[in-house]
Structures are given as structure tokens and as C-alpha cells.
Specification:
The complex is a heterodimer. Chain A is an alpha+beta fold. Chain A has six helices and eight strands. Chain A has a domain of 105 residues: Immunoglobulin-like (Sandwich), CATH 2.60.40. Chain A starts with a helix and ends with a strand. By secondary structure, chain B is an all-alpha fold. Chain B has two domains: 83 residues, Rna Polymerase Sigma Factor, Chain: A; 79 residues, Arc Repressor Mutant, subunit A, CATH 1.10.10.10. In chain B, helix 2 crosses helix 4, helix 3 crosses helix 4 and helix 5 runs antiparallel to helix 6. Classes of the chains: A alpha+beta, B mainly alpha. Chain B: Belongs to the sigma-70 factor family. ECF subfamily. Chain B: Keywords: DNA-binding, Sigma factor, Transcription, Transcription regulation. Chain B: It holds the Pfam family Sigma70_r4. Chain B: InterPro entries: RNA_pol_sigma-70-like, RNA_pol_sigma-70_dom, RNA_pol_sigma70_r2, RNA_pol_sigma70_r4, RNA_pol_sigma_r2, RNA_pol_sigma_r3/r4-like, WH-like_DNA-bd_sf. Chain B: GO terms for molecular function: DNA binding; sigma factor activity.
Chain lengths: 274, 177
């Protein structure tokens, strides 16, 4: 994702001015969590707005300050002196006369039902809240995934451009003539002018961790290693190193990381350039 | 005081913390209101109500939804816009412009305000006409960006990028002064 153009779109400013819809606000907040640049920009913009507001204004009058604190006085007092009112020792307990009893019982039942409902809904609320948080997390994971998909797409797109624009020759490499994997099949696409090489694995067995498949371009100067082949990525284009001249391509199994020279006993596929 | 401490203190209805909040933010928050609501008495009334609302609604403030100042400034801005559009203020054709604001501050008694009024002019330096227009409508007249777009037939994207450009200039000016 292009963070710089997101930042310069003006959306963050509108976020701070409180002008975005709930959905857009969520988007800004979850992106800010993923990208520290966005969070930083938000913080800086808020600082700027605060500084601008402070510098461009005048202090409200002392009267309004006094009035505000007079209004808030009760809020403070409630918290500062939470003394329970004690029942005087000589308070008379008035017995509940019998006609009121059914009402008192009904009221108690109502109170119990109401508090039960309150707990139930509080619980429901918590549950929804958790679900919401989980959704937000899912969303940021999806944003990440989308990013990755986008990058992959761009990569494939540029590969496709090359394939279409270039002059690629297809060299089919087969395993039929060799002992290793009779049904192995890998195609090489080679643009001799641009010297670019791609391969696409069709059939190739998985290797254990100690080994790699290595691609060789066999030219007048002998075989040259031009990269390791990912056998797990079937039927997608893998770009290999550049080759100017070759009469054939081949793949061998080599110790992990590849070798300087091919291990001919472990030749898997070979294809001649026609 | 750290923002977390400040919020915790406000939630505990602590008097000292509330005083700290007032000392640190009253000027900025009052500015948000008074540039939209021109009349000093009404602006102070809106400020009184907004500040009381902030301290009483602090439990509704969610740290994950943005910083404290943004939340408070939005409460003040919205109250000011509500007041401006309510019938209490007669729309006697008086337009809020930056110049009116500066003039209003300069004409108030006392030298402190006079100096502050010049500050506004300085803060506006280097804004081009488009940016000045945006600042005037959004900051001083309480328009939303979509209202500016509709009323003056400026594409929404253009309004957004002008808002950004204008605030970038203000940022530079704030840092300079």
C-alpha cells in the first residue's frame, strides 16, 4: 500500500476534524496501528492543531472559569467525601404492615428479575464488544493480506508483460531418458535477445531438506548454474539468472544451496534448444 | 502530566487534575469555539457547557479512538456549530471571516488580546488564496469539507488536498513563531 499517498490524501486531517464516517474512522485507526508512519503523522497533525488553537486564541475570562468550577463542585464533592450515611442508633424500625407485604415481595422479585436482565445484557454487551475487537483484528490481517496479494499481482503482471513483449523460446525438459524421475517435466522460457530465463515446474518430486534442484545452462563453455528451482511452486513462472548462449538446459539434484559443477549422476531432466 | 495520568485523574473526578486540564487546554478549546461563535458571551456559554461535558463524559472517551485533544476539540467544535445553526444566534448577515476574528480580538479591551490578535495574522502568513478560503470556511465558519465542496462546486478530492496543504502551512508557521 502506498502509505505516502494515503497520508497526503487529506484524510488524516479530516479524521482530526471529526469529519469522517464511522467506517472511515475505523479504517484510519486500523491503518495507524499497522503503519507507524500514519500514527506519527496523526500525532504531528494533532500537535499542530493544538498549537495553532492555543496560539490563535485568547484565554476565556476568569468568570467563566469560576462558573465552570462551581458547576463541577458537586462532582468533586461526591468523590472526595463518599461517607455513607450512618443510621442513628435510636432509629425506629417500622414493621412492614401486612397489606404492603405482597407489594414488597413483588417489588423484590421485579428487582431480582431486572438485575438478572442487567447482568445478562452486560454479558451480551461484553460478548459483542469482543466480537467487534476480533473483527477489527481480522480486518487488519486482511489489509496485510491484500497488500501481499497486490505485490504478487504486480510481480505477475510484470512477468506477463515480459512474456508478451519478449521473444521467448520454450524449451521442454523431460526426465524420460534418465533414472532419477521418469515422469519429471519442467519448461524453460528463454529470451535470447533479452537474455532472460524463466522456468515453470510441471512435474517434479519434492526433495528432502538437504537437497536442492539446480538449473544449468549448457553452452560452449560447459554447464553454468543459473539458479535453484523451487519444486513446490508448480506451474508458475520462476525467474532464473540471465543466459546469453546455451545449447541445452538441465536440472540436477545438488546438496542444499547448489554446486559449482553439476552432479551428472543426479541429472533429472534435460532439454535441448531447437 | 502524561495523557494517561490526566485521563485517569479525570475519570476519578479529581479536582487537581481537572484544574490542570483547564490550565493546559482552555485557551485552545475556547479558540475552537470563539472563532466559530463570534459573540463573546455566547462563546463563553458554549465553552462552559463543552468543558463540563468533557469532564462528565470522560468515561465515554476511548483512547483507542484517537488522542484526548482531538476528542475534546471535536466536542467543542460540534457544540459551537450546533449553536451557530440554532436560532439563538441571529444570522444578521454577519459573516465570520479571519479578519472579523482578528478585528474582534483587537477591539476587546486589554493589551494581551491585542497581541494575540496579531498572532493570528502571523499564523495565516503564506497561505495562498485557496488555502485561506479553506481555513476560513472550515475553521471559522464551521463548514464541513463536503459542505464546502457542494456549496462552491469544488471537487471533494480538491477540498481534501487543500485542507492538507493549508494545515501544512499552518504547521510551518506554528513552528516558526
Amino acid at each position: 500500500m502506498d502509505i505516502q499517498s494515503y497520508i497526503s490524501s487529506g484524510k488524516l486531517e479530516l479524521f482530526l476534524l471529526g469529519e469522517l464516517t464511522e467506517r472511515e474512522r475505523e479504517e484510519v485507526l486500523s491503518l495507524a496501528k499497522i503503519y507507524p508512519e500514519i500514527q506519527r503523522e496523526l500525532d504531528e497533525l494533532e500537535e499542530t492543531m493544538f498549537a495553532f488553537d492555543t496560539m490563535s486564541g485568547v484565554a476565556p475570562s476568569q468568570e467563566v472559569k469560576d462558573k465552570i468550577f462551581a458547576t463541577l463542585e458537586n462532582d468533586f464533592i461526591l468523590k472526595e467525601a463518599p461517607k455513607p450515611t450512618a443510621v442513628p442508633a435510636d432509629a425506629k424500625v417500622v414493621p412492614i404492615s401486612s397489606p404492603w407485604k405482597p407489594f414488597a415481595i413483588a417489588a423484590s422479585i421485579a428487582a431480582i428479575v431486572a438485575s438478572g436482565a442487567a447482568f445478562y445484557y452486560a454479558d451480551k454487551y461484553q460478548e459483542r464488544n469482543d466480537q467487534f475487537t476480533a473483527l477489527l483484528q481480522d480486518q487488519s490481517v486482511m489489509a496485510d493480506n491484500l497488500n501481499q496479494v497486490k505485490q504478487e499481482y504486480q510481480e505477475k503482471d510484470s512477468q506477463l508483460d515480459k512474456m508478451i513483449a519478449g521473444d521467448f523460446k520454450r524449451v521442454e525438459m523431460r526426465g524420460e531418458g534418465f533414472e532419477m524421475q521418469k515422469d519429471a517435466k519442467v519448461d524453460v522460457f528463454w529470451d535470447q535477445n533479452a537474455q532472460e530465463v524463466f522456468i515453470a515446474v510441471n512435474t517434479l518430486n519434492e526433495l528432502s531438506d538437504e537437497f536442492d534442484y539446480q538449473l544449468w545452462a549448457i553452452g560452449d563453455g560447459g554447464p553454468v548454474g543459473i539458479g535453484l528451482v523451487n519444486s513446490g511452486e508448480k506451474l508458475t513462472l520462476q525467474q532464473m539468472e540471465a543466459v546469453a548462449q546455451a545449447g541445452a538446459f538441465a536440472i540436477t539434484i545438488e546438496p542444499k544451496g547448489g554446486s559449482e559443477a553439476p552432479t551428472l549422476e543426479k541429472l533429472v531432466v534435460l532439454g535441448e534448444v531447437t | 502530566m502524561q495523557e494517561e495520568q490526566l485521563i485517569a485523574g479525570l475519570r476519578a473526578k479529581d479536582r487537581k487534575t481537572t484544574e490542570y486540564l483547564y490550565d493546559k487546554y482552555s485557551r485552545a478549546l475556547y479558540a475552537v469555539i470563539s472563532r466559530i461563535v463570534f459573540d463573546k458571551d455566547i462563546a463563553e456559554e458554549v465553552f462552559h457547557d463543552s468543558f463540563v461535558k468533557i469532564t462528565r463524559k470522560i468515561d465515554h472517551y476511548e483512547e483507542s479512538k484517537g488522542r484526548l485533544y482531538t476528542w475534546m476539540a471535536n466536542i467543542c467544535r460540534n457544540s459551537a456549530i450546533d449553536k451557530l445553526r440554532s436560532k439563538e444566534i441571529s444570522q444578521s448577515g454577519k459573516t465570520n471571516t479571519i479578519d472579523d476574528f482578528v478585528y474582534g480580538m483587537e477591539s476587546q479591551s486589554g493589551t494581551q488580546e491585542h497581541i494575540d490578535g496579531i498572532g493570528v495574522r502571523e499564523l495565516m502568513i503564506d497561505l495562498n488564496d485557496d488555502q485561506k478560503f479553506i481555513v476560513e470556511y472550515i475553521y471559522f465558519k464551521g463548514y464541513t469539507h463536503s459542505e464546502v465542496s457542494e456549496e462552491f462546486e469544488i471537487p471533494l478530492g480538491t477540498v481534501k488536498s487543500r485542507v492538507r496543504a493549508a494545515i501544512q502551512v499552518l504547521k510551518k508557521n506554528v513552528a516558526r513563531i
